[in-house]
Specification:
The protein is about 35% helix and about 25% strand. The chain is of the alpha+beta class. A 5-stranded mixed sheet has the order 4-3-2-1-5. The longest helix is centred in the C-terminal third of the chain and has 18 residues, at about 110-125.
């Protein structure tokens, strides 16, 4: 049975939070699951992550695969770095896992770009 660690959507409309669920990969997103191993709250600023590390590592040792989104979240909080060190047999006591996702860089506003384009045009017209 191929097992995956993926997100299961919970909560009200426009107030979603997610649970990290271990489930058979053939089951639907919100269908039957084997075990819950944590929570992800993207509504909070910054986003909050709560995990049961021992259960996550236990399932990864058994061969569970992570979905792309779960892998990204685990990488951002430092869990994958700890997992790789654990697999190599290194000391992981100094590695900590963040409880919050780092803020993403915000995109620059388009108005600033349009303003610079407008300033360049008069200079180009003066040359002709």
């Amino acid at each position: 049975m191929p097992v995956t660690i993926r997100l299961r959507r919970m909560g009200a409309n426009k107030r979603a939070f997610y649970r990290f669920a271990v489930a058979d990969s053939r089951m639907p997103r919100d269908g039957r699951f084997i075990e819950f191993i944590g929570h992800y709250h993207p509504i909070y600023q910054p986003a909050q992550v709560e995990l049961k590390e021992d259960k996550v590592f236990g399932w990864l040792k058994k061969g569970a695969q992570m979905s792309g989104t779960v892998e990204s979240i685990f990488r951002n909080i430092g869990l994958l770095r700890k997992w790789e060190a654990l697999k190599k047999g290194e000391d992981v006591s100094s590695l900590t896992i963040a409880k919050q996702l780092p803020e993403r860089a915000r995109k620059k506003r388009r108005k600033a770009k349009d303003k610079t384009v407008a300033e360049v045009k008069p200079e180009a017209e003066a040359k002709t």
